[in-house]
Amino acid sequence: MTPIITAFEQSPDRGRGLARDMRVRWALEEVGQPYEVRLLSFKAMKEPAHLALHPFGQIPTYEEGNLTLFESGAIVFHIAERHAGLLPEDANARARAITWMFAALSTIEPPVVEREMARYLEGEETWYEQRLPLVEGRIRNRLRELSDRLGDADWLDGAFSAGDLLMVTVLRRLEGSGLVEEYQNLSAYVDRGKARPAYKRAFEAQLAVFRAASAG
């Protein structure tokens, strides 16, 4: 059965591939699984039909037969478990790859999202100019630690895995900030992820949605 995922009808990132459906698209492309996309308006995301799929009224969701999932990390993990290519066969290497999935979403992403919220929601507050450097300092600490661990390796733990997929998508949220570029190996790491054919297919698919919405 062909999975169905949900995505923004008009993504606020203007086709840059930063919305979390990009992670799911990329995972599906990596494993060669065809999928369908149901586009949602912001209004529809808060209506009962979608809330039945995602209790917090967000995207993406994943539907396959009688299975419905929400949260991009959980969806990517499900895809990686069901298909070869995103998790190693060796048990220990598999466990380490899963650890990196959690690290991307639980350790690296929170301060990145905090920076986004500060910029977009708090920019006019009197304390914004003092707060932003503190947030960026926390991000730099995490990036430095990640850079030290990556070293000169291509990927986080041997071959490319779902851990790398999620980490690259998280680091991409800092594009335009100059923060990742302070660490040459992390910048090259993100570029390697973006150079993967599956990433390119996923990116073009989500960009086509933005182009169609703009043309309409």
Describe this structure in words.
The protein has helices at residues 21-31, 42-45, 48-51, 72-82, 91-121, 128-150, 162-172, 184-195, 197-215, and strands spanning 4-8, 36-40, 61-64, 67-70. The chain has a 4-stranded mixed β-sheet. The radius of gyration is 18 Å and the shape is globular. By secondary structure, the protein is of the alpha+beta class. It folds into 2 domains: 4-85 and 198-215, Glutaredoxin (3-Layer(aba) Sandwich); 91-196, Glutathione S-transferase Yfyf (Class Pi), Chain A, domain 2. The protein starts with a strand and ends with a helix. It is built from 9 helices and 4 strands. The mean pLDDT is 94.
The string of secondary-structure elements, in order, is EHEHHEEHHHHHH
Number of domains: 2
> What's the architecture of the largest domain, going by CATH?
Up-down Bundle
Uncertain residue segments: none
Shape: globular
Rounded to the nearest angstrom, the radius of gyration is 18 Å
Helix content: 55-70%
> Which fold name fills CATH's third level, the topology of the largest domain?
Glutathione S-transferase Yfyf (Class Pi), Chain A, domain 2
Tell me the name of the CATH class of the largest domain: Mainly Alpha
Mean pLDDT equals 94
Total beta-strand segments: 4
- Report the biggest beta sheet as strand number plus sense, adding barrel if it closes: 4 strands, mixed
Q: Oligomeric form of this entry?
A: single chain
Beta content? 5-15%
Lateral arrangement of strands in the main beta sheet: 2-1-3-4
Structural class: alpha+beta
Euclidean distance between termini CA atoms: 31 Å
Helices, by number, come to: 9
